[in-house]
Write a structure and sequence with these properties.
By secondary structure, this protein is an alpha/beta fold. The protein is about 35% helix and about 15% strand.
């Protein structure tokens, strides 16, 4: 008889993924870790495999949070890596599921996406029912989600977590921000009016586990804190928490010159709120930026 309480995690060795096996174990799930090396140093993983030909027989759920970091220049080569590590990996997962007998397929696919799918939307409050936007990131995420939703036609419940800026110890985003602000060189990006849809690391991990366990959650899900912040307010609160000034704004043109397309994306904003998660009964441990910073800087 096939096992029904096992979860395969693509991206298990990453910033978000490496703590998921122990969180899932608390709900009675064993874990298969999927990494390019076919192994890793992650507590709670009792099986390993490589992503090229994933074997998903006997798994209750699949979590895919794999993807090359996008906070770099969007050269042609990097765009290929972004695409292959997102759309390409998702396509292989769906193909592996399709190859299984119908009664042996996983029941749920949790396949990451990002709030970048909304594009630059100003002050518009964005829920999961909001239309996708335009631009490179929006198109990348739309294709990513399209590949994942192919699994719905195979009988799976599909959840696409639209992840915001993840704040957590050991993460590149927060580490870079904290380092700059500790020197007193921090400040808003551009005019600072763009919204930052952030989320604490503890909450994104808990949301992914919730998506596995909850039978009622499906489709796109904003994985962002309930209280997004404008960039100017975010930088002011971070500087205050570090007892440093935030007086050196970074001109938008400088960001674009230094980082190309990614620099331009930092000047765009999404006022995304987690309507689907909260309606499904999920409760955030760190719902406000003050809560999150207090925990991160303790």
């Amino acid at each position: 008889m096939a096992e029904t309480r096992r979860v395969a995690i693509f991206g298990v060795t990453g910033f978000i993924g490496h703590a998921l096996p122990e969180l899932l174990a608390a709900h009675g799930f064993a874990t298969t870790g999927v990494s390019r090396s076919g192994t890793g140093d992650v507590s709670g993983v009792d099986r390993w495999q490589k992503p090229d030909s994933p074997v998903l027989y006997g798994h209750h759920a699949v979590i895919n949070i794999a993807g090359e970091r996008i906070d770099r220049r969007w050269t042609y080569g990097n765009r290929r890596r972004f695409h292959d590590s997102r759309i390409g990996v998702t396509r292989k997962i769906v193909e592996a599921i399709r190859a299984l007998p119908e009664n042996e397929r996983p029941r749920v696919l949790i396949n990451a996406s990002a709030v970048g799918i909304y594009g630059d939307r100003g002050d518009e409050v964005l829920t999961e029912s909001s239309r996708p936007g335009s631009g490179y990131l929006a198109e990348l995420c739309r294709e990513w989600e399209h590949e994942a939703m192919e699994a719905a036609g195979l009988g799976l419940r599909v959840v696409c977590p639209r992840i915001g800026v993840v704040l957590g110890r050991g993460g590149a985003a927060f580490a870079k921000l904290a380092t700059v602000f500790k020197t007193g060189l921090g400040g808003r990006l551009g005019d600072g009016r763009q919204w930052m849809p952030w989320v604490h690391l503890d909450d994104i991990r808990a949301a992914l586990v919730h998506a596995v366990v909850s039978e009622s959650l499906h489709g796109p899900v904003n994985c962002t804190a309930p209280a997004p912040e404008r960039n100017a307010d975010f930088t002011r609160k971070l500087a205050a928490a570090l007892h440093r000034p935030a007086i050196l704004p970074v001109p938008g043109i400088a960001l674009k010159l230094a980082l190309g397309g990614f620099g331009g994306a930092l000047l765009e904003g999404q006022r995304a709120v987690p309507a689907a998660l909260e309606a499904d009964g999920f409760r955030f441990r760190h719902p406000t930026l003050e809560d999150a910073l207090a925990e991160l800087l303790n």
